[in-house]
Amino acid sequence: MELELKEILHQRIKDNCMPLYDDGHFSHAAFESMQQVEVAIKEKAGTENLSAHKSIEYAFGSEIKAIKLKIPFGKERQEKAQKLFESIFSFYRNPLAHEKCEIDKVICVRIMVIASELLDLIDASPISLAEIGGIEGLIKKGIFKNELQLSELLSFLSTQNLPWETFDGMFEDLAKIGYSDNQYQAIFDLGLIEYSSELMEEDDELDAYLELHSGVDMIGHFKLTKEGQGVLKKIQSSSKN
Question: What DSSP string describes 140-177?
């Protein structure tokens, strides 16, 4: 069974490169496909002000404290992914950007397919803030404005009870009080808070909750880890002084 070209291309490539390809601008389309990979990495890792090489190093490497894109195939593939991106950029993107390369139709298609594969890998790689450099890294990167904002989120979540594994509306509620998904994820990645379940037994404190959520037999709740308790205590103590 033959596949149409547009069936195997990433949406970014279809939107930004196929018009150039259709008009016969093969070199430009090939270069733009590599540009789309660079833009996707920078957007997801928050490295818009860095070069392509540095963005790859920050996003996939292990030597620098930063937002990471975690390859879904396991930790052992992380370094290989870094080398993959670096090699393809060195072989394709850099010559296309700095040299006069004559790219024909066939080579252009191959480059767009390779770029699509890299874009799919970026899409499939979740963001991790575990290696951002702790609380200081979160603030430096702008995830949190300051320590007080972080402590307020920890305090808020530690009071929340939810039907087990049911988060309907929670993120919308967080957004209403000024918190983002990245901030929520950050405190989990740093191991400051955890989510667990317990069987709902007779408990006067949960009567009102049960009235609103009939049929619920398990409840999930957020609780601070030992590290989270220490961080919250330290921040609250500093704010009083």
Answer: HTTSSSSHHHHHHHHHHHTT-EEETT--TTHHHHHHHT
Token pair of 4, please?
């149409």
Residue-wise pLDDT tens digits, 200-225 = 445 555 555 555 555 545 566 788 89
Rounded CA separation 241/97 (Å): 55
The residue type found at 183 is Q
Could you give the CA distance from residue 6 to residue 90 in angstroms, rounded to a whole number?
26
Contact at 8 Å (CB) between 153 and 179? yes
**pTM exceeds 0.85 for this model:** no
Per-residue pLDDT tens over the stretch 77-133? 899 999 999 999 999 988 888 777 788 999 999 999 999 999 999 999 999 998 998
User: Which residues fall within 8 angstroms of residue 143, CB to CB, at 6 or more apart?
Assistant: 129, 132, 182, 183, 186
Q: How many CA atoms lie within 13 A of 111 on its CB side?
A: 29
Cβ partners under 8 Å of residue 104, min gap 6: 26
Within 10 Å of residue 241's Cβ, how many Cβ atoms? 4
Structural domains of the chain ordered from first start: 5-128 (1.20.120), 141-240 (1.10.10)
- Please give the pLDDT value at position 175: 84
Q: How far apart are the first and last CA of the chain?
A: 71
pLDDT exceeds cutoff 80 at 199: no
Q: Hey, what amino acid is at 222?
A: F
